[in-house]
Write a structure and sequence with these properties.
The complex is a heterodimer of chains A (about 425) and B (about 160). Helices cover about 30% and strands about 20% of the residues of chain A. Chain A is α/β, with parallel strands linked by helices and about 425 residues long. In chain A, the strands form five sheets. Chain A has a five-stranded parallel sheet with strand order 4-3-2-5-6, with helices on both faces. Chain A has a five-stranded parallel sheet with strand order 16-15-14-17-18. In chain A, helix 11 crosses helix 13 and helix 11 packs parallel to helix 14. The longest helix of chain A has 16 residues. Chain B has one domain: Aconitase, domain 4 (Alpha-Beta Barrel), CATH 3.20.19.10. Chain B has eight helices and seven strands, in the order βαααβαβαβαβββαα. In chain B, strands 1-2-3-4 form a four-stranded parallel sheet. A three-stranded antiparallel sheet of chain B has the order 5-6-7. In chain B, strand 6 and strand 7 form a beta hairpin. Chain B is globular, with a radius of gyration of 16 Å. Classes of the chains: A alpha/beta (about 425), B alpha/beta (about 160). At the A-B interface, helix 4 and helix 6 of A face helix 1, helix 5 and helix 8 of B.
């Protein structure tokens, strides 16, 4: 009987000939990601770290990104404790304030490769399915235990197969696709399960795949994963990873799935997730004209070069509407630098954007761009939960970078397709 | 014993707002903010032995363990829910907090009903009627029964040295 991607990776990583859904396996992850929560994680095991040390110093990847630069003495002290920990245990994979959002940094530094097993104390660790890695979120306590022991348990998930056909229309993006899927199957539609994407994957860029894998957790998925193809190999080569450095894994043709779904990409249209649930998805046309005080372009979902570029194209020769705060956060320093060199940052800034440092920014409501009661924000981020941007009496709507840029110009929810066609002419 | 009942898709931001995640970490710091954006009555009135009754997908969202740490610290007996989000479920095992996945029991509950639990037998009783819930696999129960993942891990580390 054929095997799914998840069954193959977990069999390999647990040194078994085969595994079946529901089985518990013990695994040693290739990498474990932590971020600003590192100080809390090591704070739980101060004495034990002294006694036992870090089990596998090559495993941890630490990226300071959530509250950067530090917003107060407490967050600054957390960062300081993290730096001291890295130094003390001579950890190799540390990225300090300003390098970017952890998930983007992991990808850019080649720390999640095809067939790898990566866990992280952040729910969006599932992003690395974009390049064919098995990656999933854990909590802080589990991260503490992993520092000490270097291994953990995983339940082998059932798998949903999603087959994509045709191509997205101009002005419609991967964000619209993944929001449509979440609206369709619900916020728990893939709970405990793996999601494999099949079909016309070649029409999606690595950036597109990242958006989709990143939001896997918003449908409850343990992992959301794409096959490795020419585009993956070209991307990995571009960041200096040789083909010999990884072994791609993919499902057998006769693998067993709990559910099979198909999406015709040509039929996807611009959508938004309305408050306060990510699966509360509606066509942009249904809420046409809704007014916003803040619009946000960035985060681990949509802060990549292609996202900044599509926004700059749509905003070309135009200005952000009066009364609208347009915040832009590149997902990493590399992206920021490239966007600078290509003039994209200048174009966005001239159109009226406020450029924030490469980090998580206002997405989690801890600093930089919190909302006031009664305000509405249109955002390319991945969560519209009540209180998410620091205020329980504000509203967050999720959309694509194209929809966000088009809406920044009008100050109201705007279908980007017309504007997009104008700029591409 | 009070029963606190909530709807579907209660997310981690409602259980413990994100704005506190990098400044408040200990159980004592977490307690006053538990369920802050979901139910302003909860933190001030919850007592040891209380139960939470939840809809589907409870705890969805972030990998945030603070709600579990806080609920364990205030002495919540268990959360009986229709279903739990994956990371929240793991976090509960890691803190030794009992989660009972039993949609029929949640559906059966009416305000004022008595709810009792027998975790060893895998049974929950609502208004006199008994429902069963699936038990955790033995290797996972061992973690919960050790009092959570850190005590379990420390024991394993000591044994490997012995």
């Amino acid at each position: 009987m054929g095997k799914t991607f998840a069954e193959k990776v977990l069999a390999k990583k647990s040194n078994r000939a085969e595994v079946v859904p529901g089985q518990i396996v013990i695994v040693e992850p290739d990498h474990m990601l932590t971020h600003d929560n590192t100080s809390a994680i090591i704070g739980k095991i101060g004495g034990e770290l002294k006694e036992y040390g870090v089990a596998r110093p090559e495993m941890p990847v630490i990226v300071l990104d959530h509250v950067i630069p530090a917003s107060d003495e407490k967050t600054a002290t957390n960062h300081l404790k993290t730096r001291e920990f890295v130094k003390k245990f001579n950890l190799k994979h540390f990225y300090d304030v300003g390098q970017g959002i952890c998930h983007q940094v992991v990808l850019e530094k080649g720390l999640a490769l095809p067939g790898d097993l990566v866990v992280g104390s952040d729910s969006h660790t599932c992003s690395y399915g974009a390049v064919g890695a098995f990656s999933t979120g854990i909590d802080r306590t589990e991260a503490s235990a992993l520092l000490l022991r270097g291994k953990t348990w995983l339940r082998v998930p059932e798998t949903i197969k999603m087959t994509l056909t045709n191509e997205l229309a101009p002005g419609v993006t991967a964000k619209d696709l993944v929001l449509t899927i979440i609206g369709n199957i619900g916020a728990d539609g893939a709970n405990y399960q793996a999601v494999e994407f099949h079909g016309n994957i070649g029409s999606l860029s690595i950036d597109d795949r990242f958006v989709i894998a990143n939001m896997g957790v918003e449908m409850g998925a343990k992992i959301a994963v794409f096959p490795v193809d020419k585009k993956t190999k070209a991307y990995l080569k571009s960041i200096g990873v040789k083909e010999s450095a990884y072994e791609a894994v993919w499902a057998d043709k006769d693998a067993q799935y709990v559910r099979e779904l198909a999406y015709d990409l040509s039929r996807i249209e611009p959508v938004v997730a309305a408050p306060h649930k990510v699966d509360n998805v509606k066509p942009v046309s249904a809420l046409d004209g809704l007014e916003f005080q803040q619009v946000l372009l960035g985060t681990c979902t949509n802060g990549r070069l292609s996202d900044l570029e599509i926004a700059a194209d749509i905003l070309e020769g135009k200005k952000v509407a009066p009364g609208v705060r347009f915040l832009v956060l590149p997902a990493s320093k590399e992206i920021f630098d490239e966007a600078l060199e290509k003039g994209i940052i200048a174009r966005l800034s001239r159109a009226g954007a406020v450029i924030l440092p490469p980090g998580c920014g206002p997405c989690l409501g801890a600093h930089q761009g919190c909302l006031a009661p009664g305000e509405k924000c249109l955002s390319t981020s991945n969560r519209n939960f009540k209180g998410r941007m620091g205020c329980k009496d504000a509203e967050i709507y999720l959309a694509s970078p194209a929809t966000v840029a088009a809406s920044a110009i009008t100050g109201k929810l705007t279908d980007p397709r017309k504007l997009y066609q104008e700029v591409r002419r | 014993m009070k029963i606190w009942k909530y709807d579907d898709d209660v997310n981690t931001d409602m259980l413990f707002p994100g704005k506190y995640t990098y400044t408040l970490a200990t159980a004592e710091e977490i307690k006053p903010h538990l369920l802050e954006d979901l139910d302003s009555e909860f933190a001030g009135n919850v007592k040891a032995g209380d139960l939470i009754l939840a809809g589907k997908n409870f705890g969805c969202g972030s990998s945030r363990e603070q709600p579990v740490v806080g609920l364990k610290a205030v002495g919540i007996q268990a959360i009986v829910g229709k279903s739990f989000s994956r990371i929240f479920y793991r976090a509960a095992i890691n803190q030794g907090l009992l989660l009972v996945e039993c949609p029929d029991a949640v559906d059966a509950y009416r305000d004022g009903d008595e709810v009792t639990l027998d975790p060893e037998a895998g049974l929950v009783k609502v208004a006199g009627k008994t429902y069963s819930f699936p038990k955790l696999p033995p290797e996972i129960l061992a973690i919960r029964d050790a009092g959570g993942l850190l005590p379990y891990t420390l024991r394993a580390l000591k044994e490997s040295r012995a």
